[in-house]
Specification:
Layout (H helix, E strand, L loop, with lengths): L2 H25 L4 E11 L7 E10 L3 E6 L5 E5 L3 E6 L4 E6 L3 H7 L9 H7 E9 L2 E8 L2 H6 L2 E7 L4 E8 L5 E11 L16 E2 L1
Parallel strand pairs: 6-12
Antiparallel strand pairs: 1-2, 1-11, 2-3, 3-4, 4-5, 5-6, 7-8, 8-9, 9-10, 10-11
């Protein structure tokens, strides 16, 4: 009977929504986070991805830090008003507004879209979901046109047992992909303010 596969699909999608909603409910209780990560960047011009380790930290409502490389190669730090992008090799820094589409690529995890269910469903349309080895995977289409012009697609992997984000992947406008695998997250710990105040002494600020 044809209705059985349809019914099973509806049940599967409902279960996927339950996992996603449980994770988002937990996000509402997270005030700070510090996690190591491994990032893979896949470029159309390269056969093998560029792999870099780093660390991501945030404190609600508006402090965020992406450190790429150990020692640091690239650093993105937000105080809630300004996002500072630092290139260590060039000793240069660029400052942009946190509400710009470029800044949203870095501040998405600490922004409204991942704070609770209301923010998430306002920001994304779920276009597909599946389960792979117990991990729930979602394909998301950003609703904001400015953000979508920079990041057409977002993919997330959620561990339903730990209610944790395992992977965040973004497909960029140039068809490159940035996949970030998080490890050992520390939730609601005390993070010093100095972590979000970069020392720009000796840097050329653009």
């Amino acid at each position: 009977m044809r209705f059985i596969p349809v019914l099973l699909a509806l049940v599967s999608f409902a279960q996927a929504d339950a996992v996603l909603d449980a994770w988002l409910d937990r996000q509402a209780t997270v005030n700070s986070l510090d996690a190591a990560f491994t990032q893979e960047r896949k470029l159309p011009s390269l056969k093998e991805p560029v792999v870099t380790t780093g660390r991501f930290s945030f404190v609600k409502p508006n402090k965020m830090r992406w450190q790429l490389g150990e020692p640091t190669q690239t650093l993105a730090v937000s105080d809630g008003t300004t996002l500072t992008l630092i290139e260590e090799s060039e000793k240069s820094a660029r400052q942009i507004s946190t509400d710009s589409p470029q800044a949203a690529r870095f501040s998405m995890l600490s922004g409204k879209a991942f704070q609770d269910k209301a923010g998430f469903y306002d920001a994304f349309e779920i276009t597909a979901s599946r389960v792979d080895s117990g991990i729930h995977q979602y394909t998301l289409k950003p609703k904001d046109r400015r953000f979508r012009s920079q990041v057409p697609w977002v993919f997330i992997d959620i561990d339903p047992e730990k209610k944790e984000l395992r992977v965040l992947e973004m497909e960029l406008q140039d068809k490159s992909r940035v996949r970030t695998l998080f490890r050992n997250p520390k939730i609601n710990g005390n993070l010093p303010d100095s972590l979000f105040k970069p020392d720009l002494t000796g840097y050329t600020v653009k």
